[in-house]
Specification:
Number of domains: 3
Order of helices and strands: HHHHHHHEEEEEEEHHHHH
Number of helices: 12
Shape: flat
Helix content: 55-70%
Strand content: 5-15%
Distance between the termini: 22 Å
Largest sheet: 7 strands, antiparallel
Structural class: alpha+beta
Radius of gyration: 29 Å
Length: 399
């Protein structure tokens, strides 16, 4: 009997603990980490609430495996502590039949995570980043209302205000840093100012009225109105086109890989032609620089291809981790039945944090850099956990 009443009972218990644990873990991450960081960087409540639905899918690859492990440790530890595992073995039920609900839960969570990885997670992550870019103006005003100033190590200007009334800034001091980042080459005082964001040109426009301007050479001038254009750089700007593999859906990864491969072949063909012309002494004085640019372009295409290969291997590996964690959680939960349930979870989770995730991300970096085949090295962390689960289950069945 591979799926009977006892299996349904265990599965629904696993599902109940899994849902409660997932809600609790997701809430802790949002409250303790994301929301606090967002408010510290000037996001208002409305912006945070708008970002949460887009952020939740990106958390699934990390919260779902953890809660799957937690659910299996808790449920099977409780079954063992209540001697229900012993009763089932006495009735002639093999211990491996008891873990089918956990395997089923792990398979379901792996499938759901992988399904979200196809389109939902990359799409919502891309939309979230672009929404934050489009809200730069509101973020700036929120920071000014909160701190009465804007200072950021990635931007080459500072602004201080006395008060903010709607979209009007009162008693404004605007300072622009020197290109070397030491001191200021321009300081402007104004009674009133406004901020506008021009995403088309990636600039923040500071429009000041009744403005006194002091230059680095000490000269002072007064103008009735002046607009200072400031470039958006670093974390303050972005592109609406997808250039990172993590932002692409599964179908887009395939299309970008084909496109990058074709472009690499074309550039390689141009390089071969130039080298052949150089060997025949038909070269031009500027051919050397052009050849370097072609080789750099080919290297860029190779990097893009490696990145796509790594992304295509990383997503299934993260999703398959749910099933691997379930196979490890069952025997550990049963063995730690006489201890508190938290001990069983920590016993499983600490090696995963110390070994599994560092190994997974290290192999991902090796794959992205093209040092090792991504399809071979990235799943190695899952294989290690899977083998550990099989060894533990084998020992459990023998005992």
């Amino acid at each position: 009997m591979y799926w009977g009443t006892i299996h349904r009972m265990i599965f629904f218990e696993l599902l109940k603990v899994f849902i409660l644990a997932w809600l609790g873990l997701t809430g802790i991450i949002l409250l303790a980490g994301v929301i606090n960081e967002a408010m510290r960087n000037g996001f208002g409540p409305v912006q945070i609430l708008a970002c949460i639905p887009l952020l939740l899918p990106s958390l699934l690859p990390y919260t779902v495996p953890t809660t799957t492990l937690f659910a299996t440790c808790i449920v099977y530890g409780r079954l063992s502590a209540d001697n229900e595992i012993l009763a089932l073995k006495s009735a002639g039920v093999h211990i491996l039949h008891v873990i089918w609900p956990a395997v089923f839960l792990g398979a379901i969570t792996s499938a759901i995570t992988m399904f979200c990885f196809l389109d939902l997670i990359p799409y919502t992550g891309f939309v979230l980043r672009n929404q934050m870019i489009n809200d730069i103006e509101e973020v700036l005003y929120t920071m000014l209302r909160k701190d009465n100033c804007i200072r950021h190590h990635r931007i080459n200007w500072e602004i201080d205000v006395k008060t903010v009334q709607g979209r009007k800034l009162q008693e404004v001091i605007f300072k622009r840093k020197t290109p070397e980042g030491r001191g200021f080459d321009t300081i402007a005082w104004a009674k009133e100012a406004e901020l506008r964001v021009d995403l088309a040109h990636k600039q923040i426009l500071v429009h000041m009225r009744h403005c006194h301007i002091k230059q680095k050479d000490g000269s002072v001038a007064f103008v009735e109105s002046r607009t200072w254009p400031v470039d958006i750089t670093g974390d303050w700007g972005g592109s609406l086109t997808k250039v990172r593999a993590m932002d692409m859906t599964w179908d887009e990864l395939t299309e970008y890989q084909r496109k990058a491969h074709d472009e690499k072949q074309k550039v390689s063909y141009d390089i071969d032609l130039m080298k052949a012309g150089h060997s025949l002494k038909h070269s031009h004085p500027n051919d050397g620089e052009y050849l370097k640019s072609l080789e750099f372009e080919r290297k860029h295409r190779e990097t893009m291809i490696f990145s796509i290969h790594a992304e295509r291997a990383m997503r299934p590996s993260l999703a398959f981790g749910c099933l691997c964690f379930a196979l490890v959680g069952c025997p550990v939960g049963i063995w730690f039945s006489k201890s508190d349930y938290l001990s069983a979870f920590i016993t499983c989770f600490l090696p995963i944090v110390i070994v599994y995730y560092p190994m997974l991300f290290c192999m991902n970096d090796l794959g992205r850099n093209g040092k090792l085949p991504a399809w071979l090295v990235i799943p190695a962390a899952d294989v290690l956990v899977l083998l550990s689960g099989f060894v533990l289950l084998h020992r459990l069945s023998r005992n």
